[in-house]
Here is the input.
Amino acid sequence: MELVPLTSPEEVARVAADIVEELVLRRPDAVLGLATGSTPLPTYRALIRRHEQGSGPAWDGVRTFNLDEYVGLPAGHEQSYLATIRRELTDPLGIDPARVHGPDPSQAGLPTAGERYEAEIAAAGGVDLQVLGIGTNGHLAFNEQGSSLGSPTRIKTLTAQTRSDNARFFGSFEAVPLHVLTQGIGTILRARHLVLIATGAAKADAVAAAVEGPVSASCPASVLQLHPHATVLVDAAAASGLERLDYYAEVYAAKPSWQRH
Ligand code: F6R
Here is the structure.
């Protein structure tokens, strides 16, 4: 795992956008895994800004797979993660909506939604780069504490902590759906490159547990320690709980110029 200690959320966004663009330049038909939530928004805005300025790569060959989706929202609800990712990233980049995927939360399809999503990802050749956030409780996608480390895409029940963290998007705790569909931890581990981004002091304990704690279902994000190519981008506030921060900074400063993230 590479821990990249950065200063501000803006710097995290710049480096994360560089990593995504570098892949899409190299592989115009890249398959991107996308997180929603607040943390990736500055990264997505940086990508859109560069695209509008004409400095970004061509996006029309890219396919995207969301990490997760709420269950029980009316179709087209503005907080659905499919609507969110189209609004915040893929529509402004001009990616055809047919290339933008998410788990199917329709009531009738729920029993097979996980299996079907796994098959769609596999048919696309798997995810090249998975953008990840982290919950204040260490959740990864919507794999809450205690999730099986080998889990596939499936239905999960959100914790009260996550519903309360996400109430800001819905106006109240009660309005946050109880159920979600989420890529499993096993699904996420199959992506070829994981890029976890964390900003702000509220994430400091979760980042420390994920990076320096034991690999455990009690901190689902700790599975990044098992992945052969995981990059963790943190600002100073999110890094503040790390014991080996000085060492990560030394390693990053001494990184050979030929070595990519
Ligand atoms: C979103 C997702 C979640 C978020 C996490 C952090 O697709 O999978 O795991 O990444 O809840 O959310 P923010 O970034 O809003 O703090």
Remarks:
- The beta strands are 2-5, 31-34, 63-66, 68-70, 100-101, 129-132, 154-157, 179-182, 193-198, 230-234.
